Amino acid sequence: MVTPAAFTPAAFTPATFTPATVLVAEDQTDIRDLIVLNLQSAGYAVTAVADGLAALAHQTGRPCDVVILDRMMPGLDGLDVCKALRAQGSAAPILMLTAKSTELDRVLGLELGADDYLTKPFSLAELLARVKALLRRADLMKSAQAAVPAATSAAEPTLRNGALEIWTAKRQVRHGGSLLDFTALEFDLLLHFAQHPGHVFSRGQLLNAVWGYTHDGYEHTVTTHINRLRAKLEADPMRPELILTVRGAGYKMREAPL
């Protein structure tokens, strides 16, 4: 269920950034139509489908800039579509919509590659804010990678912490000399840690600083993304040496070795 009362059309003006495309996969017609109407009013070009198979086919053939997936759909559910897209190498931001209220269901989507999620009922204003944030971050990633010539690849990294090297202008990461693939949100989370080595952040502080919001119940987003960073950066993610847990306080990146 969507709560349309929370949406005030006057609060939004047509998007001023480069027109973006959004794929909406939702099997409930009333919810799908309401989402599409409000995304279009905000200036986005929207494609809507009613099942997971259609969503996967469309995103594989004519990829949109951001994907909104309902968790429960006929054919393939949102988790299956998310997993398949990430396996294909798609870096498009994925926002999962779920009616499930359990922690396990929310975490599953994030572990399979979703960037964010909203639990039904949600306000349309919140959905628009999340889409805008995901697109802005992805836009930064694309622009940075396109703007910096390949010849600068040998330049010194902006930030270094042991084997970790980060080029902020190119939004690229190397670890042990190997170039790693990160989603735009993963990169922003890693960059935030790298810019403040040794500083302990609570999950709420990370939500506010990186995701741009702080809401009860969304701390799982932080935990799962940290697990994704560790899977890419740590020799043993169960015994991390770079991104550390500070019991009862939060997380920190170790201070750079001398």
Please tag this protein with its features.
Arc Repressor Mutant, subunit A, Rossmann fold, 258 residues, five-stranded parallel β-sheet, 8 helices, four-stranded antiparallel β-sheet, alpha/beta
Present the secondary structure layout:
Elements: E1 2-3, E2 21-25, H1 29-41, E3 45-49, H2 52-61, E4 66-70, H3 78-87, E5 94-98, H4 103-111, E6 116-119, E7 122-123, H5 124-147, E8 159-161, E9 164-167, E10 172-175, E11 178-180, H6 184-195, H7 203-211, H8 219-233, E12 243-246, E13 250-253
Parallel strand pairs: 1-7, 2-3, 2-4, 4-5, 5-6
Antiparallel strand pairs: 8-9, 9-10, 10-11, 12-13
Helix pairs in contact: 2-3, 4-8, 6-7, 7-8
Model regions low in confidence, pLDDT < 50 over at least 5 residues:
4-16
- The proportion of strand residues reads 15-25%
Predict the CATH topology of the largest domain: Rossmann fold
Distance between the termini: 54 Å
Order of helices and strands: EEHEHEHEHEEHEEEEHHHEE
Query: Number of DSSP helices?
Result: 8
- Estimate the mean pLDDT confidence: 85
- The general outline is globular
**What would CATH call the homologous superfamily of the largest domain?**
Response regulator
